[in-house]
Structures are given as structure tokens and as C-alpha cells.
Amino acid sequence: MSRGDVPGPEDPAGATSQPDVVVIGGGPAGEVVAGRCAEAGLSVVVVERERVGGECSYWGCIPSKTLIRPGEVLAAAQVAPGAAGAAGAGGVPGRVDAAAAFARRDEMVGGYSDEGQLPWLRDRGVAVVRGIGRLAGERTVVVRAADGAERTLRPNRAVVLATGTRATMPPIPGLAEAEPWDNRTATGARAVPRRLAVLGGGAVGSELAQAFRRLGSEEVTVIEGGPRLLAHEEPFAGDEVRAAFEAEGIVVHTGRRVVTVRRDRSTQGSARGPVVVGLDEAGDPRQIVADELLVAVGRTPATADLGLEAVGLSTAPHGFVEVDEQLRVRGVEGGWLYATGDVNGRALLTHMGKYQARVAADVISGRVDPAGRPAADRCDSAVIPRVTFTDPQVSAVGLTEQAARAAGLDVRAVAVPTGSVAGSSVRGTDAVGTCQLVVDVARRVLVGATFVGHDTQELVHGATIAIVGAVTLEDLWHAVPSFPTVSEVWLRLLEAYGL
Ligand SMILES: Cc1cc2nc3c(=O)[nH]c(=O)nc-3n(C[C@H](O)[C@H](O)[C@H](O)COP(=O)(O)OP(=O)(O)OC[C@H]3O[C@@H](n4cnc5c(N)ncnc54)[C@H](O)[C@@H]3O)c2cc1C
Ligand SMILES: NC(=O)c1ccc[n+]([C@@H]2O[C@H](COP(=O)([O-])OP(=O)(O)OC[C@H]3O[C@@H](n4cnc5c(N)ncnc54)[C@H](O)[C@@H]3O)[C@@H](O)[C@H]2O)c1
């Protein structure tokens, strides 16, 4: 199947028109809610307009992390004396074989076919109906297939919206005509642009800017409208990532606005002609010329044409679907409509969408815990683990210090350099980053943690457990980290707190 095609008409498993549950959208959140409902004995239909697996599998997490990995491995080797010679030397790590990286990306996305994803649903008896789903009234979903044929599904119990998001395109004059990259074109690239400009220094922009620099782009420029990269994280995280970017030749402009974009189709030397990005008058430069412009300024929920008005909901453009703690859509009577994953705007992360999906499935199926109580929603929106796969990585969970104070908590933050433990030095010569805990002073429990450094992705789950379990500092003191691991930062942090 070529990219951009809509897959075949209907999964051979077939689908009843009156199942218990209809899920619109077969991304990570839709798949999981469907699978768990089916495991609970319900009959389930997933309606998918493109590919089962969603944005994450083909144009998000999987291809981006696959393209990041080779540069990360080379950079790690370069700071391990003895391996460094084999891996190249200089500001940018030795060359990544971009063609091999793209080939591995193609493998990881299953050649942009969802054949590999379907068995998981089939094994659970979930039917997939191909087409665009929309609400047409209470417990009523109309599906329009690629050939225009429509069929109506009338589930007995629930409809779950899991339609995700697409890249937001800001209304900058000339931008659309310049055919910018979005996450799909960037993660699906088949060649490395010599010059790449990136609009937006959030998770997508930061990860892909560094990935392309390491894949071989000679000039990479990030333009961020806010004061720093990774604005949702602790301020030191964005500053430390910026320092690392600049050390490897990525130019970062913060606090700047793009006011015009133009693709110069008269210029030779690039198949499409260079793109000229005009900046505001707030500073220098006033213009950036690149071969491609990646737009990564956030996400827009896929709610247009979803029929929200048919069930009395607002159809405000760019509006996320508001849900309660059990993932039921607010403002709809009867408790039959749910929304999980990106489309509800709570946490635009695959693992959180899948968590919400498990909660929603338990609510829909009436699952009870061993004590016979209904499965409760523990979907605490403050406890969101997240890893930004830049180098250094930014791995965090819970509240930033500022967010905790804004929430009225009396907190104390303690921080130590990630390089203060032997585990960091053993790994290489360039231990960078800061680790910080945010502690609720009265309860002596964590409410937030941030770990910036190489390979910190595996540190964050310990902090997640500590927050969810409300483990006191006195108990954490007895959770002894192994030597010589980077986890020893936990000990340093507790010592810094005064234990
Ligand atoms: C570049 C990039 C990198 C990312 N990296 C990470 C990461 O490392 N870790 C992480 O946790 N998150 C990451 N994310 C975020 C992650 O991709 C999303 O949070 C996740 O895909 C959301 O899952 P979802 O099921 O809610 O929506 P989606 O994955 O968007 O799936 C929605 C599905 O619904 C279908 N659909 C939409 N409308 C309809 C309709 N009307 N009828 C039928 N089908 C419909 C779509 O075709 C799609 O298949 C990344 C995102 C991007 C863009
Ligand atoms: N590793 C991961 O888990 C991962 C990776 C990529 C994406 N994601 C998820 O996807 C979501 C979307 O990522 P994203 O990077 O598109 O959004 P984002 O909200 O993380 O960052 C967007 C950035 O663009 C800036 N911006 C907005 N408009 C601008 C403009 N006109 N000019 C310049 N800058 C502008 C914002 O200030 C912000 O810093 C993230 O919130 C995250 O949840 C996760």
C-alpha cells in the first residue's frame, strides 16, 4: 500500500451493525479501549479511516524515535574514550548512515501498512470497519467508506471517540503555499535537507531538529515563539537542551515570530526551491533561508466533521472534546459517549491515551476491583510521565515547581547535577543535565520530578511510582540505588533535602 492511500473496504472479520461498543479511530487509544472492552466480553467495532495504529505508529513516536536512535548511539560512543575513534570526532558525532536509518524507519512503520497491527484486534474478536465515522445522534454512528457507501452502526452501550489530532498549521501568510513539512512529511522523509528550519521548539520540533542535524543536515535552525525550548518542562530543562543543541551546531532563536513564508521556486540547487522564512522585527536575523521548513507548533484535534453537533456539542474549531474523570464526554446525557487519547486534550501522549482507554473500557464494561468496587478513574492529570527524546533527554513526571506553587502547594525543590554520580562518569566524559525533585513539604512526598541527562528515560518510572504511591521521603531513603548507576541521583537528591 502506498502512503496516503486509504486501505481496503472492510476487515474480513466483518462487523455487526449493533455491537455493544463502537470506537471511532483506531490509534493507540482506540485500539486499547476496543481490545479491553472485547476482553471483558463485549462486542466491539473499530471504525478507522486510514491505518489501524494511528499517528504514533506511522508518523509519530515510532518513526521519530527510530530516526533519533542512530545519532544517539554515535554520540554516546563518542564520549566513551576507546570507542570514540571508531565513532568519529568533532562537534557533530561521526556520520549517521541516513539511508540505513530511513530503511529501518520503513521497517518499523510496517511499510506504512497496518497488516501487522490487525491481528491484535482480530485475536480479541474486534471487527474493523474502514471508513470515516461520524456521530448521527444518540448511540448512532454513520460510516462513509472510500467508495462513498454509508452504513449505520447502533451500539447498545457506548461510543468512544478516539480520533486523535493532526499538526496545527498557523495562519502565517505564504505558509500553506510554501508546502511546509509537518510531522508526517518529516518522519516520512526519504532524503536529508541540507538546511532545515523548524518552527516550534516543543517536543516535536526539538526532537526532529536534532534528529535531522545528526542525520546530516548542515544547517538546522529552530524558531520558538516562547522564551525557551520545551516550555512545559522545568526552565532548566529547556536551557540545558538549548546548550546541547548549540554545541552541536543547531541554531536556536527564542521569543521570535515568523511573519511571512515564501518558497522561492525560481532558485536552482534544490528540487523544490528554497523556503524563505521572514521573522519579526524583535531581533536578528530577519530572514532564514532553508530547504525545508518543519512546522511543529502543536496539535489540532480531529473533531471536524465528527458530527458533534448531532449530539448537542459545540463544534468550535480546534476544540478538544471535554471529558470527566471517567472519560465520559461532558454535556451529553445518558453517559454513552466517551473520548480517549489526544482528542480530549488531557495529555497528548500515547501511554496516557492508552491509560485513559483502559479506564474507559473498565467503566464501560462495569469492571469491579477485587473488593467488588467499580473500577475507579485514577486518571490524575497531574501525574503524567513524559520523556522528550532529545540528547540530553528530558524525563519528567508530575508537576514542575512553578506549577505546584500555582496549584497552591507548599513545595521545596532540590536539585543535583546528573553528573554527580559515578554511573554518569562511567557512561562517558560528558555528563550533562540536572535532576530535581519537587517535594510537598507538609506530606513529605514527591509531587514532581525531572531528570535531564543521557539515558534518563528509565529513571522516570521510579518517580512515577513514588508519586502515585505517595511514598514518603523517609521510605524512599530505604530504596537503595545500585552502584554505579545513574539512579544514584535519587540518593544525592534525598541527601540534598536533608536526609
Ligand atoms: C512526531 C511525533 C512524535 C511523538 N512521539 C511520542 C512519543 O515518543 N511518546 C508519546 O507518548 N507520544 C508521542 N507522540 C504523541 C502520540 O503520537 C499521540 O499522543 C498518540 O498518537 C495519540 O493517540 P490517539 O489514539 O489518541 O490518536 P491518533 O494516534 O492520532 O489516532 C487517531 C486515529 O483516528 C483515526 N480517525 C480520525 N478521525 C476519524 C474518523 N472520523 N473516522 C475514522 N477514523 C478516524 C485516524 O486515522 C487515526 O488512525 C508523538 C507525536 C508526534 C507528532
Ligand atoms: N517524546 C514524546 O513523548 C513526544 C514527542 C513529540 C510529541 N509529543 C506530544 O505531541 C505534542 C505536540 O508536540 P508539538 O511539539 O507539536 O507541540 P508543543 O505544544 O509541545 O510545542 C509547540 C511549541 O511551538 C511554539 N509555538 C506555537 N506557535 C508558534 C509560532 N507561531 N511560532 C513559533 N513557535 C510557536 C510553542 O510556544 C511551543 O513551544 C506534545 O505536547 C507532546 O505531548 C510527545
From TrEMBL:
InterPro entries: FAD/NAD-bd_sf, FAD/NAD-binding_dom, FAD/NAD-linked_Rdtase_dimer_sf, Pyr_nuc-diS_OxRdtase, Pyr_nucl-diS_OxRdtase_dimer. Residues 20-352 form the FAD/NAD(P)-binding domain. The keyword Flavoprotein applies. Its cofactor is FAD. NAD(+) binds at residues 200-207, 224, 298. Keywords: FAD, Flavoprotein, NAD, Nucleotide-binding. GO terms for molecular function: flavin adenine dinucleotide binding; NAD(P)H dehydrogenase (quinone) activity. Pfam families: Pyr_redox_2 (PF07992), Pyr_redox_dim (PF02852). This is Dihydrolipoamide dehydrogenase. It comes from Parafrankia irregularis.
